[in-house]
Amino acid sequence: MAKNTICVWYDKDAEAAARFYAATFPDSAVGAVIRAPGDYPDGKQGDVLVVEFTVAGIPCIGLNGGPAFKHNEAFSFQIATDTQEETDRYWNAIVGNGGQESECGWCKDKWGVSWQITPRVLSEALSAGGGQAKRAFDAMMTMRKIDIAVIEAARRG
């Protein structure tokens, strides 16, 4: 296990979520699946308790902790994309697998985990500051999934 690992709480589907992420994002994989050595408040001995996984190179563990805590937008994975095809592929994988669209490049997977599918051109425009940042920001504020061509046009003014 890595020295610093993100722990993501799931009700009971950590393994399914980890396998979906591994199938969807490059540099992602499922590692150890650890089963409960005894009964616990929201599970039984032998149930999947912890799943070690990597998402786009980031080490994580999924903890099947039960329904006590729910995900919200205070935590999200941000995936930088280079093309519209890549943006569409990730967005459609998440939303099309029981997920939900939100605004400004945000969506949630079917387990309630938030994702930002962010084209690099948007990040670059916002970092540039000035008029191009304002135009790109204003364009982004009208979108759900980010449209790279619209952001590029906004940058140029």
TrEMBL record:
Record-linked InterPro entries: 3_dmu_93_MTrfase, Glyas_Bleomycin-R_OHBP_Dase, PhnB-like
Q: Which residues form the signal peptide?
A: none
UniProt-listed Pfam families: 3-dmu-9_3-mt
Please state every residue range assigned to the domain named PhnB-like.
Answer: 3-118
Which SUPFAM superfamilies does the record match to this protein? Glyoxalase/Bleomycin resistance protein/Dihydroxybiphenyl dioxygenase (SSF54593)
The domain of life is Bacteria
The protein's name is VOC family protein
- Which species? Rhizobium leguminosarum
